[in-house]
Design a protein that fits this description.
This protein is an alpha/beta fold. It folds into 3 domains: about 5-85 and about 265-285, Rossmann fold (3-Layer(aba) Sandwich); about 90-175, Rossmann fold; about 180-260, NadA-like (Rossmann fold). The protein has 14 helices and 12 strands. The strands form 3 sheets. Strands 2-1-3-4 form a 4-stranded parallel beta sheet, sandwiched between helices. A 4-stranded parallel beta sheet has the order 6-5-7-8. A 4-stranded parallel beta sheet has the order 10-9-11-12. The protein is globular and about 55 Å long. The structure holds 1,3-dihydroxyacetonephosphate (13P) and iron/sulfur cluster (SF4). Iron/sulfur cluster binds near residues 63, 89, 90, 116 and 178. This is Quinolinate synthase. Its cofactor is [4Fe-4S] cluster.
Length: about 300
């Protein structure tokens, strides 16, 4: 494909011809996020906004579970992902059969599942959660079922971070994000010594010890809002580092202290891949309707809760 400016032009032209909308996750590199993303945000916001869009095709600039979520919420649209190998260590950590086994072992315990999972896993769950609403979801489903125990899948750290803030007993799975599990409190200490006054923001997929040492934690959308609202002089985002690149263009006066930690799965999405998606229909995402119906129920149960 031609040089970058021409590729952007070619994407925009094909996009009009194909009646497509491009969803860009907050972890996309700036040339995708800023130049071709029509809707930008965290994983759930992207799918919700896509459902409202008139476009008949969605190109998911993000990882596979996000494309599946878009397909579940927009069953009548064609959903394309530029690289089918754009996976996620959390989504890969558990299968539908493993959730079924847990449910038969703990029959009266509700299953709360993080959106970073396959459609098959969502379909086996009672309700989904995001990193922003996990505590509310866990407490709401426990109250609805009249129980004091909840199974929370599949992120061990997100589950422990919720467990630290509720009297409920949380049954944890051993999944983790290969990016966020790398951060440590020692790293935060070293950065605070070099940059006194730096504000440290952490995604809840980080270990509890990291959240304890941070100033704020939240989903990628919540971290972005915090930076927009507080405009600190210096900030460290303990999350995928493309997010700092994307925020720098909006906040050139803020110093983004960096630890460059990239998600290898997100990095598989490129301008060339998006061009191939639009030109050749690479690669259509399908979710079996019998799975989609049950996965949609779990997502909608979450959306029905007050924010
Ligand atoms: P958000 O839903 O917060 O955007 O997170 C998605 C993700 O993959 C975090 O690693
Ligand atoms: Fe999955 Fe972690 Fe990559 Fe997010 S950053 S897509 S949770 S591996």
């Amino acid at each position: 494909w031609p040089a970058m400016a021409c590729r952007v032009h070619a994407i925009r032209t094909l996009q009009r011809e194909q009646d497509a909308v491009i969803l860009a996750h907050n972890y996309m590199p700036p040339e995708i996020y800023a130049l071709v993303g029509d809707i930008r945000g965290d994983s759930l916001a992207l799918a919700r906004e896509a459902a409202k869009s008139e476009a008949s095709t969605i190109v998911q600039a993000g990882v596979h579970f996000m494309a599946e979520t878009s397909k579940i919420l927009c069953p009548d649209k064609r959903v394309l992902i530029p690289d089918t190998h754009a996976g996620c260590s959390l989504a890969a950590s558990i299968s539908g059969a493993q959730v079924r086994a847990l449910k038969s072992r703990y029959p009266n315990v509700p299953v709360v599942t993080y959106v970073n999972t396959s459609a098959e896993v969502k379909a086996e769950s009672d309700i989904c959660c995001t990193s922003s609403n996990a505590l509310n979801v866990v407490e709401a489903i426990a109250a609805e079922w009249g129980v004091d125990r909840v199974i929370m899948l599949p992120d061990e750290h997100l589950a422990r971070n919720v467990a630290a803030r509720t009297p409920l007993s949380i049954l944890v799975w051993q999944g983790s994000c290969e990016v966020h599990e790398q951060f440590t409190p020692a790293q935060i200490g070293a950065i605070r010594r070099r940059h006194p006054g730096v504000q440290v923001l952490a995604h809840p997929e980080c270990p509890t010890s990291v959240l304890d040492a941070a100033d704020f934690s939240g989903s990628t959308a919540a971290l972005e809002r915090w930076v927009d609202d507080h405009r600190p002089e210096q900030v460290l985002l303990l999350t995928e580092c493309s997010m700092s690149d994307n925020l720098i263009s909006r906040h050139p006066q803020i110093e983004f202290v960096r630890s460059c930690t990239l998600c290898p799965h997100m990095q598989r999405i490129t301008l060339d891949g998006i061009l191939d998606s639009l030109a050749f229909g690479h690669h259509e995402v399908h979710v079996d309707e019998s799975v989609a119906v049950r996965a949609r129920r779990a997502i909608e149960a979450m959306l029905a809760l007050p924010e």
